[in-house]
Predict the 3D structure of the following.
Amino acid sequence: MTRMRHDTDALATQRTIDLTTTGRKTGMPRRIEIWWFRVDGRFVITGTPGRRDWLANVLADPRVVIHVDGADLPARAIPIEDLEFRRHVFTRPHTSWYGTQAELDRLVATAPMVEILFEA
């Protein structure tokens, strides 16, 4: 992971961020508001199971921009496939809301989940 010039503790206090991806069909920037979490020092974006345009865009082009706390931070969004870590994410107190939307095993198996790796 590359080092960031921003204070990760300060960034982690912001639950809601904006995420800009590149549209997989149009090549145009697509900006959405979304939640992120820091779990074991890793910044994670997830969601409930189902089709997500932001994830399809990331799979086509992992370069993203995270807009948080007045900063526009270039990064890469890397899919998280490690089932043990995925389960760990969904069992943290600050992600408990997701458990009200789907059963834990379904979340672990099918929910979109990426790690944000910031560029230098």
User: Anything to note?
Assistant: The two ends are 9 Å apart (CA to CA).
